């Protein structure tokens, strides 16, 4: 009879452990689903409108302001590209002067023309930003 009692005790202990484990799982799943279902109540900042034309109202005014800002940003990218091309031409010409394949006059003319071109691009960019806005 003692073997029977010890077997029943073991089965009962395993059943109690599984029941506790099942309840723990149910409780954990319920707690996680409750916490995941609640909205996050963060104090988010308000979205800023476009900077170039803040006069428009509604969706179309905001959209047109963002398009204008995008065009100005595209002009700035073009200006940066022009700056790098002028710098590249100046460095290549300087290398040629150092290797006696070009004269200092050519280097000076490349630098002067490059600076004039950059000033013209920046001026045109400013004028186009005024015209777009």
UniProtKB/TrEMBL annotation:
Record flagged with keyword Membrane: yes
Coiled coil residues, start to end: none
Transmembrane segments: 66-86, 107-126
Signal peptide: 1-42
InterPro entries to which the protein is assigned, alphabetical: Integr_conj_element_PFL4702
Keywords: Membrane, Signal, Transmembrane, Transmembrane helix
A Pfam family that the UniProt record links to this protein: DUF2976
Highest rank taxon of the organism: Bacteria
Protein name: TIGR03745 family integrating conjugative element membrane protein
Origin species: Mixta theicola
